[in-house]
Amino acid sequence: MHHPAPRHPRLDPLADRYAARTHGMKASEIRALFSVVSRPEVVSLAGGMPAVTALPLDAVGSMIGELVSGMGAQTLQYGSGQGDPRLRERICDVMALEGITDASPSEVVVTVGSQQGLDLVTRVFCDPGDVILAEGPSYVGALGVFQAAEARVRHVPMDDDGLIPEALEQTLLECRAAGDRVKFLYTVPNYHNPAGVTLSEPRRQAVMEIADRYDLLVIEDNPYGLLGFDREPMRALRARDDRRVIYLGSFSKTFSPGLRVGWVLAPLAVREKLVLATEAQVLCPPSLTQYAVARYLDTQPWREQIKHFVELYRERRDATLESLEALMPAGTTWTRPDGGFYVWLKLPSGLDAKLMQPRAVNAHVAYVPGIGFYADGAGREYMRLSYCYPEPDQIREGVRRLARVIEAELDLHSTFDRVDTGTFRAVSGPQGPSGRGVEGIVGPANSDRYEDLG
């Protein structure tokens, strides 16, 4: 019998053995930047890393030390697949701040961050080829989960008020006409990652009415809901429908991302499936981190700590918006978040954030290109700027560097446009590969601009 040769035998002798689902796997646009943004000279407006140094680290350290010395037998042992009962009770207290007052600890499944919760929900509901509706743009980590499950993503447009209900209904009608099986809508309604916008109150009602009319399951991912700058937390979608909405929460943005503690709130029948999926995947969530979060909620002024985070992030948001207003060239637009971590910036016409990225890194500023937040290759004219981690002065310097990169890119495009229309004549100079004088393409002024960027 003839066996086909491995596809890449020299690079990877196991290349012909991988599952089909691995073929589309790729590094996220954010993870690919890690080696760059760790360099001290680079101002990173890329990663959404919370400002954990604003925590009372001495008190948290003492709390964890006392926890291990006093409860080591429990904290260092296996636990329940559903999660620690005391922590699940406290999670219900946290959700009550967003109007979810009917949640029972029995409906909560503790997860390794809300990322695992999203993976579990997708495993439980999706078969290969199923359709998932998601905002366009959408959280890059969710797109990775959906791709791994071999689901197809249909993006639903957004504007400054969040997901557009009419577009959601139109997409559902198109899927129905095409015979597609829509499993759920995935949405980040509060201070959206990456768009920074929030689903307005009238639209929340409209989305839930559409979900009811079309028998649509909604996955509400809400890591930022308590981080609003100018208002009380908005009422969660789950507070409006306990049957149709599965809620994902996380302590990564309000306490510590390194502890990796999140949760899923789901109806009891779904909860059973999620617990079974957890046990197959990791046996149980880590006991030590669960006890640490529960003890933190029991003993520390966590509500005041969240207010402290909010003030810190508001100051950094303000520095970002003021700098963008003062420095960005004409034709650049951006969202104005009233909470969370992110600004979504649209470049002037013709520019490509992915192609521009190496020049930005050379200028010691990092961002995430918009293409990483779409499943269909869209978003090249966008970038995500994160203001949560750098100090305000660093943000101002990062925006200044970025504005110069964009201006240089505009100058370069303008020059090429003149060449293309025949109104710009190349001057003599060093010969490039095409034989055309490179000074005639870049021009002395633009050359200087790019030297400045280094």
Automatic annotation (TrEMBL):
Residues 70-402 form the Aminotransferase class I/classII large domain. Its cofactor is pyridoxal 5'-phosphate. One of its GO terms (biological process) is alpha-amino acid metabolic process. SUPFAM superfamilies: PLP-dependent transferases. The keyword Transferase applies. Pfam families: Aminotran_1_2. It comes from the Bacteria. GO terms for molecular function: DNA binding; pyridoxal phosphate binding; transaminase activity. The keyword Cytoplasm does not apply. Keywords: Aminotransferase, DNA-binding, Pyridoxal phosphate, Transferase. Residues 423-454 are annotated as: Disordered. InterPro entries: Aminotransferase_I/II_large, Class-I_PLP-dep_aminotransf, PyrdxlP-dep_Trfase, PyrdxlP-dep_Trfase_major, PyrdxlP-dep_Trfase_small. Homodimer. Belongs to the class-I pyridoxal-phosphate-dependent aminotransferase family. This is DNA-binding transcriptional regulator, MocR family, contains an aminotransferase domain.
